[in-house]
Amino acid sequence: MEKPKKLKPSDVLMDAIGFHKEDLTLNQLGKLSNHQKQAILRKRNIWLVVLAIWCPVFIIVLIASLRAGLPIGREIGPLILVVLLGLFCGSEVLVIHNDAKNGRAKRVKGPITLSINNNHFQMTIDKQEFIVKKHIFLAFKNGDPYRIYYNPRDNRILSAEWLRD
């Protein structure tokens, strides 16, 4: 009976986080790979859909208040809410787009501390905290040294290196 092939720690990290060697090489230079930029742009596209839904809502609320002959003052609450939500969605779209356009990856290095708080899988390295999914959490070994590359705005882990020989 053959023994199962033992995976290298780097392979376990790549599989759990979902990055490739090319991603890691660019992250080491402080850049995002095209694969990582595309993932960020998919998130932007979700916000664009939300924004596209909110624009007609704004117009419907405005038209309904004008057709009903109600003064805008009575409908100002819902109108302000719709405008604020639209502005928030628009700002998220711009920020996420800039994340992909600028393509920067930050890094943090040191021993990792793993903890579970209220069903949240938390990793801390050099005072930087990451909330991750369970399968990513399980790819790391508590107390071992790592270098983690991440998107600075949303704290999303892009890639990681195990620093133990």
Explain this structure to me?
The chain is α+β, with helices and mostly antiparallel strands and 165 residues long. It is 50% helix and 22% strand. It is built from 5 helices and 5 strands. The longest helix has 34 residues, at 34-67.
List keywords for this structure.
165 residues; alpha+beta; 5-stranded antiparallel beta sheet; 50% helix; 22% strand; elongated
How do you describe this structure in short?
This protein is α+β, with helices and mostly antiparallel strands. The chain has helices at residues 9-17, 21-28, 34-67, 76-102, 134-137; strands at 106-117, 120-125, 128-132, 145-151, 156-162.
- Strand content is 15-25%
**Would you report the number of β strands?**
5
Shape field? elongated
- SS summary, helix count: 5
Main-sheet strand order equals 3-2-1-4-5
Content-based structural category: alpha+beta
Distance between the termini: 29 Å
- Oligomeric state of the chains in view: single chain
The run of helices and strands is: HHHHEEEHEE
Q: What's the helical proportion of residues?
A: 40-55%
Kindly provide the radius of gyration, computed on alpha-carbon positions and rounded to a whole number of angstroms: 22 Å
Sketch the major β-sheet.
5 strands, antiparallel
Q: How confident overall, as mean pLDDT?
A: 85
List the helices and strands and how they pair.
Layout: H1 9-17, H2 21-28, H3 34-67, H4 76-102, E1 106-117, E2 120-125, E3 128-132, H5 134-137, E4 145-151, E5 156-162
Antiparallel strand pairs: 1-2, 1-4, 2-3, 4-5
Helix pairs in contact: 3-4
